[in-house]
Every structure is written in C-alpha cells, then in structure tokens.
Amino acid sequence: MVGFNIEGPTRDRVMKLIEEKDRIESEIRDQTAILESNNVDMHVTLVDSEGFPRNDIDVYKVRHARHRIICLQNDHKSIMKKIEEGLGEVYSDFRGSNVNASTSQTENTSLTYTNGHGLNNAHNSGNEQQCFAVVGFVHNGSPADIAGLTENDELLQFGSVNYSNFSDITQVHDVVAHSVGQRIQVRVKRDQQVLSLTVVPRPWAHPGLLGCQIRRITPS
User: In what residue span(s) does the PDZ domain sit (predicted)?
Assistant: First the structure.
C-alpha cells in the first residue's frame, strides 16, 4: 500500500486504483479456479485426437475463462502502471511537505518504488545483510520453486521489505498479493552465499500464489 501518512486527492485516487487492482486479482483467481476444476491450464488443447471438442471438460466455460483471464491480465498491467505513476505523485507531495528536512539526511536516504507495492527506505546501512524471515517448505513446480527458492533460505529482501522496515510477516503477504504476475526482486542468504532471485506470484495448480511457506525468524 501507499507508504506515506498524508491525505489528499492523489492519495485517494491511488487507493481506489489499488482497490480495483485487488478486484482484478480476485477475479483472475476465480477464473483460474474454473480451469483447475477442469484440470486444464491456459495452453492445454480443448479438442480430441479427431478434432472434436473434448467431452471430459466444459469447453465453453474453459474458453470463456481463458479469454477473461487474458483480458484481466491486460487490465492488471495497465492499472499497475497507473498505480506506479500515482505513487510517484504521492512521493512528490510527500517531498513537498518536508522541504525543511536537512540536506544531509536527504542525501543519505532515497525512496524507491518496488514491484507496485509501495515505497521504502533504500538506505539500509548495516542492516542490508540482516535476515528477517526464513523460507519453509517449497512445493515442487510452484512459482517459488521456479524462482529458485529453497527451504531454509533466509530472506534479506523481499520486494520492498527488508530488515530495516520489517515488523510483521503480513508485509510479505501484502507484497505478494499486490504483485500478481509481477516480478519481485528477492535476496536470500543460503549457507554463506547471498543470492539475488526473481519470483513472480501467480495462480498455479495449488492454493496460494507462491507455493512456499515464509515465517518470521524467531530470535534465539
């Protein structure tokens, strides 16, 4: 969501766009459920070996769902662009309301837009190597698996979320929910290595948009 505590018509417009984006994503999930109930995806053929419509699926519903998903994905792409532009305007309003901030602070802090989700402090100082969550089980063939995430990966960054601004695991869930079909940049610590990965949340064969468990690291 919008990461600034300011009011105004620009913020209201962005919030309405986000509500519409949520509605689009919900309908995409509903239409994808129709495909799943027929054991097909966006590409499986709907005719048999003789060229007749398959009698083991509801061909009409599947075709309609596929067409609707394509339309919704185009709508989603368009509205994400509008949200990004709106967040840029909100950022400008925010900067204008803080013109008395010190120059040194401005030079050492930058605000970046990440994955259509929000704005975050990109100056991590010594916190950029600190983990805030860990990956649990990862389903085979899931978006998380395809992205290269594995069990016990420790999260250094998940889109706009990092150690500096992390407070609750729902922040990660929000990034996922607001980034369906969008690329999320992820940095993980695996053994002694730091890896940069890209995950794309999307409906797949099982519930959820990632297909993995992410839990908060419990202080020892």
Answer: 115-192
Distance, CA of 203 to CA of 180 (rounded, Å): 8
What CA–CA distances, in Å, run from 28 to 17, 24, 35, 204, 209?
Answer: 16, 6, 11, 11, 12
Distance CA 141, CA 157 (A): 23
Q: In 3D, which of 22, 61, 26 has the Cα closest to residue 40? A: 61
- What pLDDT shows up at residue 127? 55
pTM surpassing 0.85?
A: no
Q: What is the mean pLDDT of each run of 10 residues along the chain (220 residues)?
A: 53 83 87 89 86 91 91 85 73 52 38 36 54 92 92 93 88 88 92 90 84 82
pLDDT for 74 equals 86
Locate all alpha helices (DSSP H) within the chain, ordered by sequence: 9-37, 59-96, 103-108, 143-147, 170-177
Residue 62: partners with Cβ closer than 8 Å, 6 or more residues away: 34, 35, 38, 40, 46
Cβ-based neighbours of 14, under 8 Å, separated by 6 or more:
2, 83, 86, 87, 89, 90
